[in-house]
Amino acid sequence: IGTVLVVLFAAFYYLPWLKRVIENFLYQYPYVQKLPGPKGVPFIGSIADLAGDTTVPLKFWKSEAEKARLAGEGLFTITVLGRTITFPINGEHLRSICESHEEVTKGKDYEYLRVWLGDGILLSIGKRWRDRRKAYTQLFHFSMLDGYLETFNVHARVMADVLKENAGKVVEMGDISKRYALDCIGDTAMGYQFGTQRDPSHPYLNAVDIFTNYSQRYNTEPQMWITWIWYLMYHRVYKDALDTINQLTEDVMNERFRRIKNGEIDLDAKKKPLIDQFICLEQDGQWTREDVRTELNAVIFGGHDTTSTTLTWAFWALATQPHYQQQMYEEIHDIFGDSDRDCDNEDLKAMEFTERFIKETMRMYPPVPTVERELQNDFQMGKYLLPKGSEVFICPYIVHHNPEIYPNPSKFDPDRFLPENIAKRNPFDYVPFSAGTRNCLGQKLAMHEMKCNLSWAMRKFSFHTDGNLLDQGLAIEVICKPTLGCKLKVVQRV
């Protein structure tokens, strides 16, 4: 009888959710039958095809994308437990959703981030999103970007010192890149010195890892959906991590507001962290104090993991392809010689091969697994009508590995990003940071940060491994991580 009571309780508890799911399924089912893609068992859909480790979803999606391509289609659709999900596989089909000003609502899988990121730039919709977007566009003006390069140099120097201390050893470049990126974003966003490159035990670093790990698992491990199991086994650790994140943000804000009130900080200074610019908006009455906290969390979240992951993949690609590593070294040596000077804007412009290399890294190993939209209306994509309530997944990996766009897509080739080759492609054939109305406003800042990092790393060190480029798989977490990590031997140049 106990089992029966548990089943009845669960059925009653989840009845409203189940009712909504079934209603959506019944509305969308006639549309789905006309869309290309695996049909699977009604309602259950392709859940079995997605079961397995964190590498399985990308493999399944890529396989279905190839079937759609060979059939002459520009998209495919799958269903998973009543959810209808469409994947465009080329820029032509991506353009319609990316450029839409109406369909900007984020997909269901982002909800797990709302307890941290709130209703800020990453998750908001409507007028609130448009107002935030306008504010951020002004904040990320080119003149503002110039001021952050000095900060990147400071932390890149520290990273070079850390590598020097480990010269001759095998190190995990993923950890080193992550600490560098967190120190950079803490400084540029909050004027706060995390110092994780010198102190890897900083509680914020561990808290972010725990929060993102639990949040991602919540989407894929059904036992976590059961309330009593969640509170018994997961809630305390999850809440402690979230409290650590929020407390640090609150402490930094309180200290910043205090120093501004006491006249210790000049809000009119040309170079200032984003928090000061957010506070200006708060003092003008455009934002509330809660808005400042929400946007700081959003910038920290969006500004360190994607950058650090791309750097990790870049170091892996350099170590497994010594000819490209030599080419990058020669470019950087031509610019800097044997000097120890900082990287400036003219240097960034001259690092043409380095930029192409980074772009090819993000083509082969895009940091973001999917960018999701939940359709608020029936939506025309190519020759197909997608149903209201269904979702569109922009999967950069699928588009970037379409052989009709990038011949021999598993070959690493930075020359794909020579100007004459870029001109041949649809602008939406390359979407590592999404594109269109909800594109990443910080992508230029991220490129500056990565080029600055490599200018220091390649001047002073070479990186080595016995592994091959394609040994790695992509593990889907909040971002796409290398399945084997990135353990490289660091050799100091003489």
UniProtKB/TrEMBL annotation:
Pfam families: p450. It comes from Pristionchus fissidentatus. Keywords: Heme, Iron, Metal-binding, Monooxygenase, Oxidoreductase. InterPro entries: Cyt_P450 (IPR001128), Cyt_P450_CS (IPR017972), Cyt_P450_E_grp-IV (IPR002403), Cyt_P450_sf (IPR036396), Cytochrome_P450_Monoox (IPR050196). GO terms for molecular function: heme binding; iron ion binding; monooxygenase activity; oxidoreductase activity, acting on paired donors, with incorporation or reduction of molecular oxygen. This is Cytochrome P450. Heme binds at residue 440. May be involved in the metabolism of insect hormones and in the breakdown of synthetic insecticides. The keyword Metal-binding applies. Signal peptide: none annotated. Belongs to the cytochrome P450 family. Its cofactor is heme.
